[in-house]
Amino acid sequence: MSVPAEAVGQPKKAATAAWIGSALEYYDFFIYGSAAALIFPKVFFDESDPATATLLSLATFGVAYAARPVGALFLGHFGDRVGRKKIMVFTLILMGLSTFLIGCLPSRDQVGTLAPVLLVACRVLQGISAAGEQASANSMTLEHAPPHRRGFFTSFTLGGTQGGQLLATLVFIPIASLPEDQLLSWGWRVPFWLSIAVAVVGYVIRRRLEETPAFARQAATEGVVKLPLVVLMREHWADVLRVIGGALIASVSTIFTVWALAYATSDAVGMSRTSMLWVGALANLVALAAIPLWATLSDRIGRRPVFLIGAVGSAITMFLYLWAISTGSYPLIMLLGIVTFGVVYSAANGVWPSFYGEMFSTRVRLSGMAIGTQIGFAVAGFAVTFAAQIAGPDGTDWSSVALFTAALCVPPVIAAFSARETCKVPTELLGEKTPVQASRTERVTA
């Protein structure tokens, strides 16, 4: 069978668009995490009670995750109705605009309690945008990818996410080294203002991408589903539950990125902001290489074993990383930070785009991935707030936080064990549950 000329090179274009777009979008999303841990307690909340100010600031980080399931319902519906490409463009524009506005917000000293209210409103918009970004980019790359390399190509979305987190960290390193008065007055705003480029660059990159062959075939043969959510809950409810459970693995990322940063730079440990930001930067740099390698391995041995390595390994190594922080030994912190986040967590992080996406059929894939992941991610987002409470009044009970993180790795393990292995299933048969359904799909696509 000849390959249509317009399809040649599309897998690479889709993967590139997913990587760059996700990097730009999650640059915006993760600079908020750094600011919530280091800056916002002093700018938007009452400094007279530092512990409460930190807790409230970390709670605003979680607000975006609470908004993501709502965004998933909306964007997932339209992604399965009008296509993956339009959602990918929309999410970038929304993220760039909302992040830029955060950099323009007045402080608590200027407008009082209105300041944190405006901050939360902008963070909600960030969450809605993020809800559709990964699901649409993952669907786009999976449906463009060669069947035997779906793991590799879909991993570019998460590679972009890590790239965005690396970029956000690198931007914050010189900002964090500014004198305190400059940092709190104007310095912290610069990374947020830079996000205006996200909307422009993202639009140029993504508007030229072709819609996926799988979605085009679905629309031309059976037609798109009028109510994807109804079909999703009727035919794929168990897979949605698996994705929700699997998505809790993101708690490792939020605890590592936000709570551990706040703990390490607290008076109890006394690490400098710049040194801890470098730990995150180098861990993300290693992750950029590890993610496609793990994903390639999943194309050979399966999604489940690689995902399980990441889930079980993260439960163990996060305990070691938080212990290292408690010792105050910077070489030990650097080593275990890279191993935990850069290597081990990347196993689960690199394979979940293909693992989750392959559970659903084309007609509800974007909805299934968006709703399932965003409900799980919502819990992961507030894991930071729970960790701040679990750590006690002085914020030093790192072992309880480590046990809490390990407990959140249990549902992903259960989800992986209960899921089917799909790495060798043809793309057009993904999401089919019975031989009867599979034969029907083969007749439609023949």
TrEMBL record:
The keyword GTP-binding does not apply. Keywords: Cell membrane, Membrane, Transmembrane, Transmembrane helix, Transport. Its main location: membrane. InterPro entries: MFS_dom, MFS_sugar_transport-like, MFS_trans_sf. SUPFAM superfamilies: MFS general substrate transporter. The keyword Transmembrane helix applies. It is a multi-pass membrane protein. Signal peptide: none annotated. The chain crosses the membrane at residues 26-45, 51-75, 87-108, 152-176, 188-205, 243-264, 276-294, 306-324, 330-348, 369-392, 398-419. Coiled coil: none annotated. It is found in: Cell membrane. PANTHER family: SHIKIMATE TRANSPORTER. This is MFS family permease. It comes from Streptomyces pseudovenezuelae. The lineage of its organism: Bacteria, Bacillati, Actinomycetota, Actinomycetes, Kitasatosporales.
